[in-house]
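seq as requested:
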Amino acid sequence: MVHASEFILLASTKVGDKSLVVHTLSPEWGRRSFIASVSGKAPMAIFQPLSIIDGEVVENSKSDLWRLRELSVREPLGGIRSDIRKNTMTLFMSEVLYRTLKEGTCEEGLFEWCRRSILTLDALEHDFSNYHLRFLLEFAGALGFSPAFEDLAPFAGEYLQVVKQLLTSTPAQCLLIPMNGAQRNAVASLLLDYIGYHTESQIKVRSLQVLRDLYR
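struct tokens:
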């Protein structure tokens, strides 16, 4: 059987010269991996982290690794791809999703929330240095454990007041909370610890240090 759907690319793993295992999020299958071919119709550029694409899934009764084909870009994301700071932030966001969501995870509304988050970042023109912090808070909510101040306090340490500001501010106000790169990294780390505690996993995100250096 063949199924058409929309996908968000979380990561990819090269297998051979012309094939990739792509780790995706979709409305139908949630977090699932597929095999895909790199070709003229689907060049490597289409497989960038958090790309929003259309494709067809071909079921395979002999394998759990089904094929993803006929790939095309659904959302160009010009605002992200033309800005190294936003591109780096999508590396962080995609790595968090990839390392947190287990294969088969299919939380209701997760795909739609993730899609909105990507398009919001794409549309922002300035003051988006704190965007990944708001993303982490909303991600916790999308997973079903929206944090209250009392929940985050044990993880917050010296950043208790910053965490309180993030929780009590609107999404737009969150972007304006003054922080430097080191402070953002520390807050992002404690939020990852909080999410890891609830998902019973250790979330080691390598791209976090790059964000710190880029958003000084």
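The longest strand covers residues 2-14.
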